[in-house]
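BUG-138 | component: ligand-complex export | severity: low

The export step for heme C jobs runs without errors, but we want the raw record kept on the ticket for reference. Input record follows.
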Amino acid sequence: MKIWSHLAILASLCLLCFSFEPAFAVDNDSAIERGKKLFEKATCAGCHPSGENLLHPNKVLKGPSFANRYKNDADLVKVIRNGVANTGMPAFSKEQLSDSELKEIIAYIRSLTPASLHSTGSPVHKSPKSLSPPKRRL
Ligand code: HEC
């Protein structure tokens, strides 16, 4: 049953959240690393582990089609702040995520795309300026 593996993933992510907590106070991480931790802390990873989408598998947070639909970070801010009605994607207010936290989460989301191009084996290798792929792998 697929649902069990999803539950197992969710459970291990919860454990991860707790184990990351102490490191969260450290301030010298890169924006991407901080974004990754926030992504877990803000529960995004529960539905989007590694940028996947457990509820709506076509709406992953990485890859060329995602990059095409969200060319600007402002578009990402909009979908995360407003959520998507009746889909399970919640809205995240400024009380839940400050603007700077959201920026770091977006840096993390953007960092997923270059790696995902390999795993999907997609021949598309457009690299829009807005993507600015990070040099290091996570
Ligand atoms: C309870 C599950 C859930 C949580 C928690 C969640 N999301 Fe989502 N998210 C979804 C679903 C479902 C969609 C697909 C919405 C749709 O059908 O357009 C989505 C869509 C998105 C999209 C647009 C993807 C696309 O391809 O159009 C982004 C970006 C996104 N989520 C980011 C986040 C971030 C960042 C967080 C945490 C701050 C988060 N989500 C938390 C379920 C979730």
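Assignee comment: Attached the raw record above. Residues 79 and 91 are 8 Å apart (CA to CA).
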